[in-house]
Amino acid sequence: MKCRTCGDGAVLELRRHNAAFCRDHFLQFFRRQVREAVRHYKMFTPEEPVLVAVSGGKDSLALWDVLVEEGYQTAGLYLDLGIFDYSVESKARCEAFAAQRGLKLIVERVADALGAPIPMVKQVTRRPACSGCGLSKRYLMNRAALEHGYPVVATGHNLDDEAATLFGSVMHWQTDALARQSPMLPSTHPKLVRRVKPLYRLTELENAAYAFLRGIDYIVEECPFAKGATSLAHKDVLNRMEQASPGAKHNFLFGYLEKARPVFQRAESVTLNECTSCGQVTTGTLCAFCKMADQVTQRTGGAE
Ligand code: Q46
Ligand code: ZN
Ligand code: ZN
């Protein structure tokens, strides 16, 4: 296997691109994909400070690393979900990453904002951990960005994540989710920051290779609640299709973004209000996060 660019020994073969690369040319390929994502969706400019949501995993730390390398002004945001050892470990990786590079890391505890850590929220609300967790992450990312003056939040979602989410939304024909699925969600309200996914053109494997080749120390274990999540079943289906026909995942996602999303987008228009309790943006009167926080306070307060 030889590098497509220089003909030296390759370290990685990318079947969907019908190419193999040596270390340096893979890193170059990776950065080019990120540059193309940022350019295509006008995600941010070099003048704008970017808040990078980091979980301690390969994707988000690779994202932070590549944005720093590309010369962007960044700070990290770590949300401490309070999920046992997983949270302790993943926070330590983010702190070490930031300290080694002299970068700013903002840490927020979900328990401070919500009244309880995620495992307790799961019990109290009797909903899957990921539902309260996902809601809290979106809410706190936006709030932290507003409070600290960042116009944009970047997350480490990769091609596999995005294709699996799309697959899930299609399976249930969730037209609202389909309309929102994009590598770039613009700010549609003064209290809503832009959300971007600069790694959407790169697969999980490519991010892992990048993190490895750049010597990034990331947490390999997954969140204990990730097991059995339907998104994993969807990834599995897509991986099998990819095996049979390299590029299938890419075509599924990119085809949607180019051809079908505009249709769903036109169909879904919502009015945004400010939550009567916390002032963040909601489509109703009280936002979903405040409703959940009330539920947590009531139930945990009642137990004491
Ligand atoms: S952290 Fe939270 Fe994930 Fe854990 S509880 Fe689910 S959503 S799996 S990316
Ligand atoms: Zn090469
Ligand atoms: Zn609220």
Word description of this protein:
- Helices cover 53% and strands 12% of the residues.
- Strands 5-4-3-6-8-7 form a six-stranded mixed β-sheet, with helices on both faces.
- Strand 1 and strand 2 form a beta hairpin.
- Helix 2 packs across helix 9, helix 7 packs across helix 10 and helix 7 packs across helix 11.
- It starts with 11 loop residues before the first strand and ends with a helix.
- The chain binds Fe4 H S5 and zinc ion (2 copies).
- One zinc ion (ZN) binds next to helix 1.
Structural category = alpha/beta
Which range does the strand content fall in?
A: 5-15%
Average pLDDT: 95
Q: Give the SSE string.
A: EEHEHEHEHHHEHHEEHHHEEH
Please state the oligomeric state of the protein chains shown.
single chain
Radius of gyration, rounded? Answer: 20 Å
Sequence-ordered SSE layout with sheet pairings:
Elements: E1 12-14, E2 19-21, H1 23-40, E3 50-54, H2 58-69, E4 74-80, H3 84-101, E5 105-109, H4 110-114, H5 118-125, H6 129-148, E6 152-154, H7 159-171, H8 175-180, E7 184-185, E8 194-196, H9 204-213, H10 230-244, H11 248-267, E9 273-274, E10 281-282, H12 288-303
Parallel strand pairs: 3-4, 3-6, 4-5, 6-8
Antiparallel strand pairs: 1-2, 7-8, 9-10
The protein binds Fe4 H S5 and zinc ion (2 copies).
